[in-house]
């Protein structure tokens, strides 16, 4: 459980620092035999900063509750 808590802390900090990423997708607009028209779109996949803080907080709770049981 301690390892899982540490992983959550790392993921939470990364989510706070990197608020999202952009993905380029390609859509087919027109397909008329040999004529093909494609459109590239950039989509932003993001998350709120507090989501990373919550995940890191859960990780901290897991690490500290595990230490109390072990010690």
UniProtKB/TrEMBL annotation:
Keywords: Membrane, Transmembrane, Transmembrane helix. The chain crosses the membrane at residues 44-65. This is DUF3185 family protein. The lineage of its organism: Bacteria, Pseudomonadati, Bacteroidota, Chitinophagia, Chitinophagales.
């Amino acid at each position: 459980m301690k390892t899982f808590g540490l992983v959550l802390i790392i993921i939470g900090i990364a989510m706070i620092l990197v608020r999202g990423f952009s993905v380029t997708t390609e859509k087919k607009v027109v397909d008329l035999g040999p004529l093909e028209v494609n459109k590239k779109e950039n989509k932003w996949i993001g998350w709120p900063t507090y989501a990373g803080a919550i995940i890191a907080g859960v990780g901290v709770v897991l690490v500290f509750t595990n230490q109390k049981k072990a010690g």
